[in-house]
Design goal:
By secondary structure, this protein is α/β, with parallel strands linked by helices. It is 42% helix and 17% strand. The protein has a 5-stranded parallel β-sheet with strand order 2-1-3-5-4, with helices on both faces. The N and C termini lie far apart (31 Å).
């Protein structure tokens, strides 16, 4: 499995913990995020992750910022991206099962390290249910 990860200054600490966790599971990680707590513009770190997922160069993406709203909004501009904002593990499970999400967006300022690692684990291990959900997912793309 391959995952691209991106973050702004609010997500740096958790990003390193996520990478450590993923590597312990023998998952290849591409880090596009800042490695600093100095203020940066989150879209600069979202675009390469979304492009990797869109072009199927990775299986999933993970994005972190303070609220995760900005990273989710940016990622969802890309064709084929279904980025879900999650602050609880149950929501992570649903975005995979029902929405076939391919990018997990984590609000670093509103989650704990333990919650974040559990959410990442759930995200990579939960399958899309398909069935009745597939027709709904098929209706997501824009009219462009």
């Amino acid at each position: 499995m391959k995952i691209s990860i991106g973050n702004d200054h609010a997500g740096t600490e958790y990003k390193f913990k996520i990478i450590e966790f993923l590597k312990s599971k023998n998952i290849e990680v591409t880090n596009y995020g800042t490695d600093s707590s100095d203020s940066v513009d989150y879209p600069d770190f979202v675009h390469p992750v979304a492009k990797d997922v869109e072009n199927k160069q990775v299986d999933f993406g993970i994005l972190l910022c303070g609220s995760a709203n900005g990273v989710a909004m940016t990622a969802n501009k890309y064709h084929g991206i279904r980025a879900g904002l999650c602050w609880k593990n149950e929501i992570v499970e649903l975005i995979r099962q029902h929405n076939n999400a391919n990018i997990l967006c984590i609000p670093a300022r509103y989650t704990t390290e333990q919650e974040v690692i559990k959410m990442v684990e759930t995200f990579i291990n939960t399958e899309f249910e398909g069935g009745r959900h597939q027709s709904r997912v098929d209706k997501i793309p824009s009219c462009n």
